[in-house]
Specification:
25% strand, 6-stranded mixed β-sheet, 2 domains, 5-stranded mixed β-sheet, alpha/beta, Udp-n-acetylmuramoylalanyl-d-glutamate--2,6- Diaminopimelate Ligase, Chain: A, domain 1, 13 strands
Length: 249
Amino acid sequence: MVKTDELEHYLNTLLNVSKFKDYAPNGLQVEGRKSICKIVTGVTACQALLDAAIELGADAVLVHHGYFWRGDNPVVRGMHQRRLASLLKNDLNLFAYHLPLDAHPELGNNAQLAKRLGLIVETTLNEQGIGNVGVLAEPTSLETFSLKIEQVLQRKPLTVAGGDHLIQRIAWCTGGAQGYIQDALGFGVDAYLSGEISEHTTHSARENHVHYIAAGHHATERYGVQALGEHLTERFGVECKFVEIDNPA
């Protein structure tokens, strides 16, 4: 068991929350019971995840995508009301960490994705430390690397060929980071991998002769919160269970 305020302080310190200028608050977003024995982790605090946490008797939910995003309508109605009602009625804590969980060098989404895809990290992609640049152990074709991604993530990636060259030097950033392709170009990479793709990303890849791989926002961001949950089990002895809520995006 761990006290809720102790867990928040530990997570905020571990993930270096104060370093980031983010699009939503990081930390304890909705306060529930004061002590925590069981945590359900997931990518997004959607209603299906909350329902699973309640059914499993969790004391807290820990996610990458929480609530109160910049620009959101602050009125508590509809979906927003139902989600908050589920948390408050069941005295359930909600912890959410966005950019800090992307950036952590060991537990973060980008570090964990690299581990699974065999990417060797050399440096970070930008000043905030979001995303990475590195290499593959051996030069690999776009087709072969895409097949590996599909096998690991259980989702076929969308690819844009920037030529017929092999991939060795690569940059990556999970989630909706397709715009970081411009940062990646400055590192002379052969390919850039992210979760999503925009219309203009295709042209950037083709005209700059860089392969682009969109491997799925949800699919690329499943692993950081799982690693964080495992870490909390080791540190505090609390039970952490990852619940996968299917999302093709």
